[in-house]
Structure formats: C-alpha cells, structure tokens
Amino acid sequence: MMTLEMLNLSIAMPEMFLLALACTVLVVDVYLKDSQRNVTYMLSQLGLIITLILISQQTPQNNEWTRELAFNGLFVNDLLATVLKYAVVLLVAIVFVYSRRYLQDRNIFKGEFYVLGLFGLLGMMVMISANHFLSMYLGLELLSLSLYAMVAFDRENPNAAEAAMKYFVLGAIASGMLLYGMSMVYGMTGSLNIVEVAVALDQMEGDNIVLIFGLVFMVIGISFKLGAVPFHMWIPDVYHGSPTTVTSYIATAPKVAGFAMVIRLLAESMGSFQADWQGMMIILAVLSMAVGNVIAIAQTNLKRLLAYSTISHVGFIMLGLLAGNQEGYSAAMFYTLTYTLMSLGGFGIIILLTRKGFEADNINDLKGLNQRSPWFAFIMLIVVFSMAGVPPTVGFWAKLAVLKAVVNIDMLWLALVAVFFSIIGIFYYLRIIKLMYFDDAEDKSEINCTRDMQIALSANGLSVLMLGLYPAALMSICIAAFS
Amino acid sequence: MDMELIYLAIPLASLFGAIMAGFFGKAIGRSGAHTVTIAGVATSFILSLMAYNHIVLEAGDIYNQTVYTWMVSDGLRFEIGFLIDQLTVMMLCVVTGVSLMVHLYTIGYMHDDPGYQRFFSYISLFTFAMLMLVMSNNFLQLFFGWEAVGLVSYLLIGFWYKRETAIYANLKAFLVNRVGDFGFILGIAAVVMYAGSLDYKEVFSAAPQIANQTINLVGDEQWSVMTVICILLFVGAMGKSAQFPLHVWLPDSMEGPTPISALIHAATMVTAGIFMVARMSPLFEFSETALAFVMIAGAITALFMGLIGIVQNDIKRVVAYSTLSQLGYMTVALGVSAYSAGVFHLMTHAFFKALLFLAAGSVIIAMHHEQDMRKMGGLRKYMPITWITSLIGSLALIGFPGFSGFFSKDSIILAVGESHLPGADIVYLMVLAGVFVTAFYSFRMYFLVFHGEERMDQHTKEHLHETPWVVTVPLVVLAFFSVVIGWVTIEPMLFGEYFKDVIFVKESHNVLSQVGEHYHGQWAMIQHGIASWPFALAMAGVGTAWYIYMKNPQIAVTASQKFSFIYKMLDKKYWMDELYVKVFSDGSRGLGKGFWKGGDVAIIDGLIINGSAKLVGWFASVVRHMQTGMLYHYAFAMIIGLVGLLYLFASPVS
C-alpha cells in the first residue's frame, strides 16, 4: 500500500512549485492586456527566485549529502542535482532578463515565451533528478516539446518555422532512438530504475550484443541532445533560425540538462559498460572538436559561428566524461557550467546589439564595437577569450581540467588532438576580437538597452573573469558532487 | 632611533624623489623636480652618514636581515634584505655623496634642457637602484640592483634620444652589458645549484664545501665548481665595470650628459663590479684560477685602455679611457686578493674622477658644448676655479704623493709586487707602465685645455667665463675630498680592522699584510713614495706631456706620422669595435636574417601558419557544404552515425 510518506514529496518541492508557477503564469497571462505583459515577466522572475530559494532548502542539515529518493525511486536528489538545478534556474532567469527588450521590439512579447520557458525548465529539472529511464524520458520530452514550440514561436518568421520543423523531425528520430535503446536495456535487465539496472548489469557476464545495441542507441539519443558530431546537424540551423533569445535559451540551460543525462544514463546505470561508451565518446569527441572548430572558421553569421563553437565545446565536455572517473566527471561538470556562462554572455552581446528590424547576427556587425561601447567590447573580449581558453579567464581552467583528466587516463594523444583543434579554433575567436578592436564601426548607432540587462550582462562577463581568477570554489563543488 | 627604519629609508628617499619627478614632473615643475630629488638624495646622504656613524664610529651591530619575503619556491627563498656592514656603509656614503654633488651640478648643466624633470627622475632612480645593489644581503636583490642600474644607465646614455650617436651608444652599452649579465645570472644559477640558497651568509658558509667539488662542463675535463662560479660572476663584473674585452661600451657612453658620465660611468655604477667581487671575496678566495683571471683582465684593461687615452681629442673621452684604466687597477687589486686596496681605490677614484668629469663638464659649458681639446687652450685665465680643481684632480689621478690617488694606487702596485699568483710579475710591470701612461694622458689633457695658446674662435672666446656656483661648489667639495680622503682613510681601511669581518682573505694570499709590514704612517709612505719607481714614472709622464704639447708641439705630429701604425691602432682602439661589429653584430644579424627569411617567413609563416591556415580554410569551405539545409541529409547523417557506431561496437565479429 502506497502512502504519502513513501512518495517523499518534499524533496521534489522546487519542481512542484515550478509546475504550479508555470500553470499560474499560463492562466494569469490570458487575462492580461498586451500592455500588461510585464506582469507575466515579473511573475515568472519572482517564481524563479522562489524556486532558487526552494532548491537551497534542499541542502541537508549537516551538509552530508546522501541520495534521497522520491516517487518510488523515480526521482533522486543529491548534491549534483542541486548544483545543476541552481545552474539551470539561474541561466533561464538571465535569459529572461536578456529577452524582454528583444521581444518587445519584435512584437512577440507574449506570455507563451515565459510559459514554454518555464515548462522547459521543469523538464530539465526532472531530467537532472531522474533516477529512472521513464522520468528521464519524460523530462526530456517536456523540454524538447517546449523548445520546438519556442523556436517556432515567432510565427511571422519563415526561418524560424523551418528551423522548428527540422528540429522537431530530427528530435523525434533521436527520441525514438533513445527510447529504443532504453527498451533493449529493459529487455535484458528487467528494470527501468537506474540503480537497479546498474546492479543487474554488474551481475551479467560476457559480452551481450543486445545491451551494446541498446547502449549505442542511448548514446545517440544523448549525443543529439548535446549536439555531438554527427548528430549535430540541427544545431547551426536551429541556432540561426530561432529568435536570438530562444537561441540563448537553447544554447545554455539544456546543455546542463544534457550533461546530467550523460551522468545518469551512462555513468550511473551503464557504468559496467564504460569501456564501450568510452570508445564511442572518443570518436564523437574527436569528430565534434574537428568539425566544430574547422567549420566555424568559414562562418560569417555570428549565431552559426557560436553554434559550431558549441559543437566543439561539446567535444571538450565529452573528453572529461569519457575519462570515466571522478576527476573526469567533475572536470566535465566544471566545463559545462562555465561554458554555459560564456555562451550566455556571447548571445547576450548579440541581443544587446539588436534593435527593431536589425538582428546584429553577422560577424561584421561587431566591427568597431570598442568605439561604440568600450565596456561591452571588453565583456565580449572576456567571453571570447574564455571560449578560446586564454588565461586568466575561466575557459582556460576548464580546458586544463578536462585535458588533465584525459592525460591521467593515459590518453595523451587525445589531449594533443584536443589542443590541436582548439588552436585552430583560436583563429575565429581572435577574428571576433580583431573586428571589435581594430576595425572601424560601420554602424555607429547608439546601443540602447535597459539598465537591468546592462547589469546582468556585465555581471555575466565579469563572472567569467572572476571564476578564472578564483576557480577553486566552483571546482571543489564539482569535485564534491562526484565523491 | 631604530636603525632598521633608517636603513629602509635610505633607498626609499631616493625612490620617492624619482617617482615625484618622474610621474608628477609636469605638476611640480622644474624647480619642484630638482627640489624634491635633491631633498630625497640629501636625506639618503644624511641617513647614510648616520649609518656610517652607527656601524663604524659607534661600532654598532652589523645588520643582516630580511625585510620582505617575496616568495618561497621549492625551499628557495626570494627575499629583499639588507646587509649593512663596513663595506656597505662606505659604499652608501660614496654613492649618496657623489650623487648629491651631481644632483646639484645638474641644475647648472642641464639648465636649458627640455628633459629637465626626466633627467632628475632618472638620476634619483639610479641612486635608488645603486643603493639597493650595495645594501643587498642576497643574490636576487643584487641582481635586481645590477639590472636596474643597467637600465637607468641605458636610459641616460640615450637621454638625448634624438641624437643618432646617443641611440647607437645606449644600444651598444645595453647589448655589451647583456653579455656580461648573462654570465652573471649563470653564475647566480650556479650558486643556487650548489649552495641551494640566494642568501650571502648561507652561500659563504657553504663555500668551503663547494670548493672541493668539480663539474663536467665540456668533454671530460673536470672544472672546479668554485672557479666556474667565480669566473661567471666576474663576467658580470666585466660588463658592468667595463673590463677588457667587454669595455667597448664605456667610451661611447660619453654620449650621455656629463653629470651622468660623472655619476654613473665613473663614480658609482661602473664600480659595482668591483664592489661585487669584493663582497664575494669568500668565494673568490677558493679559486686561484679565477683570481688569476681577474688579475690579468684587470692588467690588460689598466695598461691598454690608458694607451688609447693618449690619442683621444675629445675631452670626455680622455677621461673615459682614464676611467677604464683605473677600473683596471681596481680589478688587478681584486685579483691579487688585495680587496681592501681595490675598494679603497674605488672610493678615492669616485671622488677624483667625478671631479675630473664635472670639471670637464664645466669646461664644456664654458665652451658652449665644444668637446674637442684642439679647439681649447689657455682656459686657466678665464676659469680659475675649474683650472685649480682640475689640476688637483689630475694630480690625484696620477698618484702624486699626498693626494688620495697616491695612497690607493701605490698600495695596489705594492700589493701586486707581493703577489705570488702566476703571471703576477708581468702584471707588476704592466701596472708600473700604466703609471707613466696615466700621467702622460692626464697632463696632455691638462696642458691642452688650460695652458698654451688659445685656439678657440673669437666668438667663444668673448663669452668665456667661470661657470655658476652650482657647478663650482661641487667641484670644490670634490677637490677637497680628492686631496684628503686618502690620507684620512688609508690606515683603517687597508691595514686596520675596518674590513676584518667583511672581506675574507686566505692567509696564503694575504699580500696586504705583507705590504702593511713596511707601512709606518702616511708621512713615511709619502717620503718612501717620492723615492720609488711609480713617482719617477709619473713625473716622467708629466714631463713628456709638457715637452711634447707645450714646448715642442711639432713632435706630436711627427711621431704620429712616423709611428702611423701604432697611432692608427690606438686611434681605432685596437679595432675592437670593428671586430665586434663585423663578427658579432653582423654575424648575429646575418644569422637572424637567415632564420627570419628561411625559418620564419618561409617555413613557419609560409608553410606552417599560412599553409595550414589555407588548408583549414579550404577544408572548412568544403565541409560547410555538408550543411545543406536539407532535412533528409541531416537525418541521413544521423543514420550513418548510428550504423558506424553499431558496426564498430556491436558487430558480432568483435
């Protein structure tokens, strides 16, 4: 007989609150006039702040973390989940800050953006806390469906519609593959619970072709979500086609959720097949770094350039993951968290430069930014340096950590390959800096932006620098999450 | 009063002046700049006198402590610390004293220069760096001071940066010093390697153990570690103190303003090498090879650089070659383990050479920046103070009995006579011959400038007059010291207890104690000196100069024609400059050009950078077409990925 205590609902408090919030926003928005959309915005932001507070309530009394289960083992809470949830909520909240003026300028300042954004966030949080293939899948679908709708959300824009269509079809294929892989694992182990699967797999002997099949399908599902080559094709088109605010949403928080997916599905449940998924990840990582960095060089559209840059960074995250030990996981986590921060800053700058009827997504639009706004040119400089991995920005430490993890599992060659491709990558990062600082501005119009966005964007950029100067705190959290 | 605070304030007072004049020069104006820097240096000088009083007169405790620890790396401590003992306080007084005189003099000399504040900032900065160098208790700070004085020297030689020759000269000084400094830092590295410390005290106490070790440098030859360390350190000294063959920069450094020639290139910085070797006596004493090396380098410099001085016509260059020659004497003294005599000569030389430079500067001011002695003559009538003080300086330089140079130089010659190092006999003859040469060129200059017919043009002649008090007061003060400083200090410094705990001399090398056995007071030394070879040679030099340049000027012309080869050799400075330019400058430039054209442009830029960039660019432009925009292509890529992974990981064969 199931009782309410067994459900242990209290540890899922943030998610439940978020669900209620999203529904409330949905209903409230219906009764608002177009001129009152700010209420929707404020309500969403307030809700996100409360969600953050609720997440912080999950901290155990004496700071000793244990895996706490809820919903009959469908849902888990641990330090990893808490840290990642903090990150996603924060990222989404900043995306909302960046979005407001952009949406207003384009007459798409609608409640749907916030409702979909909140539901997507809920999906991510469920993924992060999933202890069961089903809850993982549900979270993923909730996120994905929200994203499809968000991409197409600017209905007047044919590019957006096309991007949404592609994303939807490919996403459906990937979801199907993931589900197929899960069903094969279920067939062999008789369970969908991540911990039980792990136990069952440990007891099996010999090679099991069906399980490897299942593993390949699951890896593909995950790779699609992260955007690893050759499952990356959607990324440039979707990043390019979506409204930039939606791009900044897709490019940041879902990466964190994707990271959680790798940890939950591969590290925690398929741990005994580590040798196999390590091999797959080496291929995917090398391909991602190569294709991402090389093709980025040929891009003239800033959003596409950042899309390929993302692909190459996913390769780096995979380097850490494939190390398959505490050092590698924590390095990958550090990389993911800091990369999303840089990515957010990069898209933030693009949003900053946009205005009504002008998307500012060509790299030439950055020309002479230093003349127009030395401060934001400096912020972009930090962000770009960090992406390139130049000290003292945090990107340097992130790269160093994953490379160290790879070297420590005796894969020096892989580290060298990674360094080689990141050197190629420096080219297009430096080109951005050259355009900002050494070219004359073609478009000398003043940058108009709201005070809250200025503060958020400055804090965003400076945090990349500060984390680079004091990386120890975040790094120790990442290490603690896997001990 | 707390001595530590005083010690700390000595360099910082000068630094403060330098910062104020350098960064706020515009705000405080010209008079503000000289006021603040002179106040800073005067403070340093007064505090140095207090330190002297404390250490020497009150026999206070020697101070050897760390002031600040910069970092500790692998057990090696990088520190700033002071070692204040008898040697240090002597150097402090000399450096700050001469510096103060030069600061005052500069007011007059640089009066109309647009870079007035910059100049004051530099010389105060130099004083700070030199003080850090002499006060150091460890090799790191020594090296800091060493490089810092080198830097300021560079800045000041090129002070008139619009002059082509000044730029050439400062570049030359910098490059030649780099050669020396490279040896110096290798020496410090060797010290760290074998002693495991940068601290003087720890290194010195480890010296006896290091002395027994050998090192394999080239082939199978075993070198004494101590010899290697000492010679490397001395290579540094050769650069800074302009010893043969690294002397070539010093004559050219005369491109800088004259106060700088006096302060840096005569009285203080160039003596840093002498000071350093004296400070390192506990190391050098363990290597007779290194000592012999030092002695011979010094002797060559002392004699052959003096010879070049004979044929120079630029008044400052004569003094510059005289400086080289005198530095050679100091180095010889170090080589024969008469460190005290070397340092003693350093001190007396600082006064009379600064005097000679400033006097030359005074002449140059009066002559409207004309430096060619052939266009001077008979100035004694117009500039009595400059004339008298120059005469005093010259007498001190040639070692006329009773003047300060006599005591120090004669002591060195006597010490060489007592030495048993291999080659000491020849060196003795060389330094004796050097006395004649010194006297000859000194009085050649004196006669050409102050006596004889007036060869300047009418316009200059009409404006000839004595220079203002800011110029003559330093001359008089320095002249006073040039006369008395030797008499007053010879007893404690050479034969007394002054350097007892500072300079370490092995009993078998102790030439000064043997000299000391024959020493019976200053007056007896003068009486004995008049009856000895050096005096006779000096008088012969003066007499020859008088005869050739006053009595029968025709001889100089005939001699230069008759011995045209020798004349040319001296005029061309033994072709050292040509050799260096041809071999080292052109050679390294050629090498650099080869690497640049062949390595950098062709291989690195052309092939590796541009080639790979083109390759990547081409590859990118091809691969980007994979992104067709067609949905079924994308899906197809995913399927290929799926099939590929399945083939690699799930095929039954594997």
Strand arrangement, major sheet of chain A: 1-2
Count the E strands of chain B: 4
Helix percentage range of chain B: over 70%
State which percent range the strand residues of chain B make up. Answer: under 5%
Q: Largest chain-chain contact?
A: A-B, 36 and 26 residues
Secondary-structure class of chain B: mainly alpha
Tertiary shape of chain A:
globular
Low-confidence stretches of chain A: none
Strands in their spatial order, largest beta sheet of chain B: 1-2
Rg of chain B, nearest Å:
30 Å
> What average pLDDT do the residues of chain A reach?
92
Average pLDDT, all residues of chain B: 85
Please count the beta strands of chain A (DSSP E, at least 2 residues each).
2
Number of domains of chain A: 1
Q: Give me the strand/helix succession of chain A.
A: HHHEEHHHHHHHHHHHHHHHHHH
Number of H/I helices of chain B: 27
Strand count, sense and barrel status of the largest sheet of chain A are: 2 strands, antiparallel
Give the overall shape of chain B. Answer: globular
How many helices of chain A in DSSP terms? 21
- Name the quaternary structure: heterodimer
Q: Can you characterise this structure?
A:
- Chain A is mostly helical and 483 residues long.
- Chain A is built from 21 helices and two strands.
- Chain A has a two-stranded antiparallel ribbon with strand order 1-2.
- Chain B is mainly alpha-helical and 654 residues long.
- Chain B is globular and about 110 Å long.
- Classes of the chains: A mainly alpha (483), B mainly alpha (654).
- The A-B interface holds A 165-166, 169-170, 173-174, 177, 209, 212-213, 215-217, 219-220, 223-224, 230-231, 233-234, 236-237, 276, 279-280, 283, 291, 294-299, 424, 427 and B 613, 616-617, 619-621, 623-624, 627, 629, 631, 633-635, 637-638, 640-642, 644-646, 648-650, 652.
